[in-house]
Amino acid sequence: MTFAELKLYPELLQSISDAGYTEPSPIQESVIPAILDGKDVMAAAQTGTGKTAGFTLPVLQLLAKGESAKSNQVRVLVLTPTRELAAQVADNIAKYAKYLKISSYMVCGGVKINPQMLRLRRGVDILVATPGRLLDLMSQNAVKFPELSCLVLDEADRMLDMGFLPDIKRIMQKLPPKRQTLLFSATFSKEITQLSLQFLNNPVSVSVAPANSTADTIKQWVHPVDKKQKSKLLSYLIGHYQWQQVLIFVRTKRGANKLAYDLDKSGIQAAAIHGNKSQGARNRVLKEFKDGQLQALVATDIAARGLDIHQLPHVVNFDLPNVAEDYVHRIGRTGRAGAKGEAVSLVSADEVDNLSAVENLIKTKLKRILIDDFEPLHTVPETHLKSVKKKKPHKKKLARQTDNEKQGASKSGTKKAVFGKKGKSGTGAGGKNDRGKNTKKDSNKPSTRTVKSAQARTSSTTRSEKGAVRRNKIT
Ligand code: AMP
What we know:
By secondary structure, the chain is α/β, with parallel strands linked by helices. It is built from 19 helices and 16 strands. The strands form two sheets. Strands 3-4-2-5-6-1-7-16 form an eight-stranded mixed beta sheet, sandwiched between helices. An eight-stranded mixed beta sheet has the order 10-11-9-12-13-8-14-15, with helices on both faces. Helix 17 packs across helix 19.
């Protein structure tokens, strides 16, 4: 399928072509027609699937038909959990809207509110906001919604994780009930489904990958190591493999500061990004990291949520996350848009339960590689995947499969990654070398030893499920 077949306006096709996109991603193929049709949409899509363009392009097209927003009014509201994600979404909107007369603006906390109030006076067609700052602006009558036609909840699962549900409910009360609502979430938990039942009207449900799957383009493995040695091992890995741009996740803000300091001391240019840093500092280090001036960025989960760093090659889990789903979000910073990426986890014995939770979530045992001189004194115990009973497909159910489902499933047979063709070059989670033998690339790593073979690459059946685009009504 082409973007033109999605019946997008020439102005949008031009900006898509300027961005270098040749074909829509599966999520885009699926949500763009539904949104253009005016339907509510509930989409399960990880970051990196092209979901932002998926909702922005049709929303722009719908807005292009109407009049510009009047003073203090907003026509489309996009809510995001973090400031970084808000900034990224706003950048994307500006990029796709450049040939249209549609205004967009971003408001979030951590910066002065007055300039935001001034700008809102002129009215904004698309407002991207984090919930807290939006509520502040609403309480000062700086923003009003009688003209609002569409609400987008981006990364809704993370908004709930971050405790934004009361804020979201307060905002919803002020929005016109007759509107289009689009909800994007990496996972469809019970809470998300409840939210959708409460706020969405007969939504079309779209899913491009089973919840909690990782992109096939990301190669993942684990280095078992003692806790005390982690910092040294990380410096060694960065130096030895000459990683030029590496995003490192840690659990705590203090941990992030300390690790950035340690890395800096060992000659690796590093900085930390987390919620205690001012917005100015967060923007600055992010820019330096994206521009290649910083080799390592040490981040907490919240600060790094939704970051889109072009072709980021390496992600390191210095600590495994407490919540297994965060592993999927973390490593989703690499291997985006069909590019290849590597995700390395440094795991100490006390993290075995976290490791087991991650492996069970992604249904893959991660390859363990010992590094000479960093072998742990405290062995990381063996983990086990919980066996999942495979249900036999029910003949009658298969017969009732909709045309849409069949189409999606057959398309996916040739698509490994969310961005179709490009994904073919990727090595999957647990690639060919995962059976205990080193590939050519691994043989360049003289001091590593594979001690445990990972489960083979996801089976072709699983992969075809991954690519499948399912669209059905929620009842
Ligand atoms: P997102 O999932 O919205 O964070 O997008 C991930 C990345 O994919 C961004 O860098 C987009 O610029 C890029 N992207 C979006 N749509 C496409 C497309 N159709 N083809 C190639 N790249 C895309």
